[in-house]
Structures are given as structure tokens and as C-alpha cells.
Design goal:
single chain, 85 residues, mainly alpha, 2 domains, 3 helices, 0% strand, 30S ribosomal protein S21
Length: 85
């Protein structure tokens, strides 16, 4: 999408007035609004990617539970954040 906002200096017009007119022209095309709308847009993940991500998390959870049962991972006690007094 290409938007053209062109202005030319008219007679005795100052540089500041030219810039002001240009900014008004750009605002009129609503180009900035479109750019700002699309700035943080992110596409939804495909079904395949969401399934793969779910499978990976399930595998990691199983491995964690196994290590916890074997005693290789210390369980976190609720209310304590590891600090000693």
C-alpha cells in the first residue's frame, strides 16, 4: 500500500508553513492511523503449531513429574520464597 502526500512550496511560504501543510496532508490520508493499528498486530498461531506446543508442554510436564517422584527436584513449599532469617 503506497500513499503519496506531496506538497510544493507556494510563493513566499516559509519552511515551517510547508511542513505544517505536509503534516496536515499526511493526517488527511490516515496513513499514520493505519500504521499504528498494525504496529502490534500478531497473527494467530496455526492449528499445527498450537498442537505441537501443547505436546511439548505435556512432555515437559511428564519429565518434571518423573524427576519430582525420583526426588531429584525439591518441591517448592507454598509461603516460603527460599529466604532464611
Amino acid at each position: 500500500m503506497k500513499i503519496i502526500a506531496e506538497v510544493k512550496k507556494q510563493g513566499n511560504e516559509s519552511g515551517a508553513a510547508l511542513i505544517r501543510r505536509f503534516t496536515k496532508r499526511v493526517q488527511g490520508t490516515k496513513a499514520l492511523m493505519k500504521v499504528r493499528e498494525e504496529r502490534y498486530f500478531s497473527r494467530k498461531l496455526s492449528k499445527l503449531k498450537t498442537k505441537r506446543r501443547a505436546l511439548v508442554s505435556i512432555d515437559k510436564r511428564k519429565a518434571y513429574e518423573r524427576l519430582k517422584k525420583l526426588g531429584k527436584i525439591v518441591e517448592k513449599v507454598p509461603g516460603s520464597n527460599g529466604r532464611r532469617r
